[in-house]
Write a structure and sequence with these properties.
The structure holds two protein chains of two kinds. Chain A is mostly helical. Helix content of chain A is 74%, strand content 0%. In chain A, helix 3 (64-71) packs across helix 15 (266-302). Classes of the chains: A mainly alpha, B mainly alpha.
Chain lengths: 303, 307
């Protein structure tokens, strides 16, 4: 990424810069407040929440909610691994499906290039709608109550294919690919051994967007997973169904601890679960930011 | 340009490479398009028969009657109004706010700080609506919510937020902007960074101050980016973010007058009322109006930019 304005070019004098900086930092803090509140509540004690509510300044800290989550047994651990499984397999499979298409579209000599471009762009303009998607996925493809329902519908996107295609076109010299052809490489080999290794930035960009998409997805579960298949729930959907989830968690924990009378800190558990979902995002975010930005710029400029 | 000869083998290889994605698009984008028929049929499935048979043989065509019933239903004016109301506000604020923020952020002296601010404003975009719903719940919960505790501290009465529609237009707009502003801002930041610095330098030599430079250099240079985003937004003017209007208000019944938008209707008609025809008719309306507007606004913006 190019640099911003150099200080000596900036329109701000030193004092103005101080004020604007302060305002932006205040804005950032304000934007972060809702997330911070969740963090703080998750480490507050149940008594503190009962007395002072969801407060930024709890009277008493406690890790009870987390201890509870870790002891809750099957249900949550399973949901966590479901989320992880969906995220990893969806992202990898998506790249495997989209990257070869992007490569084919980037080759000017490819006969079906324009036809396929229209083919992938048309659905952006017009789609069958929710009913049609739902009926096809449940009654024709029979995806209801399977992991595939959570993975397949979001696998490809014309947008990402275009981002990759543009990268292949702009940053890979034709001569390189011609040379490989002269050496007797077939296109799949060229893609795998020449194009992919030098295209890591754009592959990472698409992968990062997909990781966020799958980690955050809950709508497919709402549509395709019914309440008899809680073992397929990803974390996000467990949160959607919080009330029922808390019951299950309580039952699991009571069963495991053998204490029937034990009541969980329900209010703080909710927020602790939200933290379990946000934390990976927050940790990975600074590393991912560069790739996100690349993707967003390519998308905006070439769109 | 010299036309390259391409061998049959190469052509076959490239076709093969595109095959997985082609199959995916056929199954998940093109196969459902036949489902547009749901909007023009009265769906009367017979158990045990295939979807195609049920839809095309067992269900009678009803022409546009689904649409006329849908549009005349008592809740539809409210739903359409809500959808348009929020979208127009998001359309305008979603361009003005990020552009202003981007312009002011670019001029910061410290790159470290502007990078940090960028990250903080971008973060909400990558949280799911479920998470956002919980963050908001921390503030608005009736008994434990932060805001009610503050109200009580000052001797005011607690508000049952999830039962009071009056506040929710404001809340939803605020949340919507909170989540999306950072993302648009980064797009504009990148566009500003790409502007040729010499334009600014010559403007400064001509005696232009910060405002003049913004007005005569930055904004005209951002025109392409802004109009691209504008066109895309216009195309989805009847489409709303399902999560924002369904999950963030926790699907509260008393909030429906202000939270019901077309996407929420499409979902509820399908999953809660099993009313396939109306749901499909509503989606078809969204899709076709969006498609037409997208093409129209594209033509208009192109013509305006030429002048």
């Amino acid at each position: 990424m190019e640099d911003y304005v150099r200080p000596e070019d900036s329109a701000y004098s030193k004092n103005v810069n101080r004020i604007v900086t302060l305002l932006f930092i205040l804005l950032s803090a304000a934007v972060f407040l809702p997330v911070l509140l969740v963090f703080i509540v998750s480490v507050s004690s149940q008594n503190s929440v009962t007395a002072a509510g969801y407060s930024f300044f709890p009277r008493e800290f406690s890790l009870e909610a987390y201890r509870y989550l870790f002891r809750s047994g099957q249900y949550l651990i399973r949901a966590f691994f479901n989320s992880l499984f969906i995220t990893i397999s969806g992202t990898l499979l998506g790249i495997v499906f989209m990257c070869p298409m992007a490569y084919a579209l980037s080759r000017k000599e490819f006969r079906f290039r324009n036809v396929l471009l229209v083919f992938i762009l048309f659905p952006m303009l017009f789609s069958g709608g929710l009913v049609a998607n739902y009926m096809v996925n449940t009654q024709i493809l029979h995806l209801g109550n399977t992991y595939l329902a959570l993975i397949l519908p979001g696998l490809c996107s014309a947008w990402y294919i275009l981002i990759m295609r543009n990268y292949f076109q702009d940053s890979l010299p034709d001569s390189m690919i011609e040379a490989a052809k002269l050496d007797g490489c077939a296109h799949p080999q060229i893609l795998l051994f020449i194009v992919v290794p030098v295209s890591k930035p754009v592959l990472m960009t698409v992968a990062v967007f997909q990781v966020f998409y799958y980690w955050n997805s809950w709508y497919p579960s709402l549509l395709y997973i019914d309440s008899n298949h809680t073992d397929l729930y990803p974390l996000q959907y467990v949160l959607v169904n919080m009330e029922r989830s808390i019951e299950t968690i309580t039952r699991d924990a009571q069963y495991l601890s053998g204490m029937q009378s034990y009541t969980p800190p329900a209010v703080t558990i909710r927020m602790a679960m939200v933290v379990v979902v946000i934390l990976p995002i927050m940790i990975l975010f600074p590393f991912f930011q560069r790739f996100l930005k690349t993707g967003m710029t390519i998308g905006a400029v070439k769109g | 340009m010299r036309k390259k000869k391409i061998s049959r083998k190469e052509s076959r290889e490239l076709t093969l490479l595109s095959l997985p994605a082609v199959i995916w698009f056929l199954l998940f984008s093109y196969l459902p398009i036949f489902g547009v028929a749901f909007a023009f049929k009265q769906f009367t499935p017979k158990p045990g028969e295939s979807l195609f048979r049920n839809l095309f043989v067992n269900s009678p065509w009803t022409g546009f009657s689904n649409f006329s019933f849908l549009l005349r239903s008592s809740e539809m004016p409210k739903i359409l109004f809500n959808t348009l109301f929020y979208n127009v506000i998001f359309l305008i604020a979603g361009i003005v706010l990020p552009v202003i923020l981007a312009i002011f952020l670019t001029e910061l002296h410290s790159k470290r700080i502007s990078g940090f601010v960028e990250m903080m404003l971008l973060l909400p975009y990558f949280l799911s609506w479920v998470i956002v719903g919980y963050c908001l719940y921390g503030f608005l919960a009736t008994d434990e919510g932060q805001i009610n505790h503050i109200l009580q501290f000052f001797g005011r009465n607690a508000v049952q937020w999830y039962q009071s529609p009056a506040y929710w237009r404001g809340i939803l707009i605020l949340i919507g902007l909170w989540k999306s502003t950072g993302y648009s801002m980064v797009i504009y930041l990148c566009a500003i960074t790409a502007i040729d610095r010499s334009l600014y330098e010559s403007a400064t030599l001509d005696g232009a101050g910060f405002l003049d430079r913004t007005r005569f250099v930055t904004l005209p240079q951002l025109k392409t980016t802004i109009s691209t985003i504008f066109i895309l937004q216009i195309g989805s003017i009847l489409t709303s973010d399902f999560g924002l209007f369904y999950q963030v208000p926790l699907d509260s019944n008393s909030l429906q007058p202000v939270t019901q938008t077309l996407d929420v209707y499409v979902y509820k008609a399908l999953m809660q009322q099993a009313n396939f025809s109306y749901s499909a008719a509503a989606s078809f309306l969204q899709s076709s109006v969006g498609c037409i507007l997208l093409i129209l606004s594209n033509i208009i913006v192109k013509r305006l930019n030429k002048e």
